[in-house]
Specification:
The structure is a homodimer.
Chain A (H helix, E strand, L loop, with lengths): L1 H7 L2 H6 L2 H5 L6 H8 L4 H13 L3 E4 L7 H4 L7 E6 L8 E5 L6 H16 L3 E4 L5 H11 L4 E4 L13 H10 E5 L11 H11 L3 E4 L7 H11 L3 E4 L7 H11 L3 E2 L3 H16 L14 H9 L5 E2 H8 L3 H13 L3 E4 L3 E4 L2
Helix pairs in contact in A: 7-8, 8-9, 10-11, 14-16
């Protein structure tokens, strides 16, 4: 699909392209060329769109502005994404957290904690909404007041596992549900490996919390490597089935993760590098008022959420907002996605 | 001391050297030169040797054949080693296992298991006989039927901690107790970091099982790096104090260890490289008798102890010995230190 769009620019042009031109496209067999020549299956498309509208969703394509920039960069981005909820610019600052369906109390504790902490620092948490680690990653982001994206191996109108009904609604409210599979697609086994390339593709890096040696999370980690994204793995006691996969990843070069700081340390420089394309000018440090100083002292290189600053400074929210604006104007503070702030480097 | 011996060859010659020659030695201040000129403190030396004889020990020096080859290679090998028990050629195939005094059931389980398995494969286990991981490493080696060496931070006549009286005697029986400190030296805090360079210096690599962030085991790991030895660290659940140090080591490049195989895989090629200095000649595989085949099939690349082969083949010990000799003569099997055998590569 991407090659067709690259060549003919619009879907309409693809359907009107002469057979000879179509046959020149790499990877397009005779059968597919014949199907394209039949023209779009308008009834199917209309039914699909109407089903999607019914649940308040929409389709975005590789050609849309809204299509996630990071996902567009991978080798085989989906041409169409079914979306429920909202994708925001700030979701580019994303980390995927994945792991086994079968978990231990240790894995559950770690997932919720780290997901929550990352969300507090303005990181969007991406996962697959599976039972176990995935679901806990989404819940952690929500309880941390942040954003979260679920990529499904079924249609965006299929809630699987069904126990996640409540979580499903929350994610639509606080992020987005995505899928490349048509409406009503069941959660077939074969869908999940393909789905995993989108999970890693949306993020700066993948954190594998618990994984047996055959876990699908290792596939996600493999895609991350292929896509040039970071791979993080959480250690655990030797002899636990759920640590075998993560230990294998660490032996193969994944970064051992003990805390959200370990992750932020890796991804912040990269994220800053992407954002700061204009050269910095050295400016003398301006004088700060006493109140500005109090707030400035709370900050570090790592972005902090405004609510934390409000709590810790014991000033009222309006006051903190206006002081932060002053500090930003004075060039002392950087704003980050998700109402987070850090000292300007 | 090493520089003095390098220059004058024997201690006698050092004591008879003219002041002018002594002053030329790098690192020798005026005070030390004057002390040397006074001649040996014969009474002190005699008392020391008599104390050592009383407990059945002896001194070996850098100039002795028996001095551990691997230890001689480090930057600052001790000039004298007090020894109780025996040092053997096969102790060159050694791994150090160290860790915290404070342990968890997990750490204790892992230490005994891995130490026992390595000992079964003919590896001599080196440690510091401290409470906790160190003591368990020695016990593991003993229960695995192998050899073990303890390097003390006190005199070889001081049993510390005193609860290790039984272990102390076993180590003398199944390996050696070493120290560079004079007889009767108490276990002073300052001795331990120095002692640690000997632990790492004796071995191909150091395994750190559990370590807090301030553990002395991290000093041993640091020496190992300096000395060009492998560093292995055992992961554990995040949030456990005793895994902080080992996780730090892994982040800094230590190899994550889950099993004795992980360690053998790293050190066997190096050990083989050291042993196989003569070029190998390709020889056709000779015919084997049925009994030889049974034994050969039990073997792999990893050395296996003869007792295991006796047990698994259900042949009697004399039979197994003579079959192994045949296989070795036919060039099919390699013998390893500690009565272990592997397929010839």
């Amino acid at each position: 699909m991407r090659r067709l769009l690259d060549r003919f620019n619009t879907p309409e042009a693809v359907f009107h392209a002469p057979m000879k031109e179509l046959s020149k496209i790499e990877g397009l067999g005779e059968k597919v060329v014949q199907e394209i020549r039949k023209g779009p299956l308008e009834k199917v498309v209309e039914r699909e769109l109407s089903l999607l509208r019914e649940v308040g969703g929409r389709v975005i394509t590789l050609k849309d502005e809204e299509y996630p920039k990071r996902l567009r960069d991978i080798y085989d981005p989906p041409a169409l994404l079914y979306v429920r909820g909202e994708l925001k610019k700030e979701d580019e600052f994303a980390i995927s957290i994945v792991g086994s369906r079968k978990t231990t109390p240790y894995g559950r504790w770690f997932t919720e904690k780290v997901s929550q902490e990352l969300a507090r620092h303005g990181v969007t948490i991406v996962s697959g909404m599976a039972r176990g680690i995935d679901s806990l990653a989404h819940w952690g982001a929500i309880s941390g007041g942040g954003r979260t994206i679920a990529v499904l191996g079924c249609g965006v109108d299929v809630i699987y596992p069904s126990e996640n009904r409540n979580l499903f609604a929350k994610i639509i409210d606080r992020g987005a549900i995505l899928s490349e599979f048509p409406m009503g697609s069941p959660p077939e086994g074969g869908h999940f490996p393909r789905r995993n390339r989108i999970i890693s593709g949306l993020s700066l890096g993948v954190v594998v919390v618990q994984a047996s040696e055959k876990s699908g999370s290792l596939i996600t980690a493999g895609y991350a490597l292929e896509q040039g994204r970071e791979v993080f793995a959480v250690p655990g006691n030797v002899g636990t089935e759920s640590s075998r996969g993560t230990h294998r990843l660490i032996k193969e070069g994944a970064k051992l993760v003990e805390s959200s700081e370990d992750i932020l340390e890796e991804i912040l420089p990269q994220w800053r590098g992407e954002r700061e394309t204009t050269p910095k000018v050295e400016i003398p440090r301006p004088d700060l008022t006493e109140e500005e100083k109090v707030l400035y002292e709370l900050l570090s290189e790592t972005p902090l959420h405004i609510d934390v600053m409000i709590r810790e400074s014991r000033m009222d929210p309006g006051k903190v907002s206006s002081l932060l604006l002053n500090l930003e104007l004075k060039g002392m503070v950087s704003q980050w996605p998700g109402k987070c702030f850090s000292k300007k480097m």
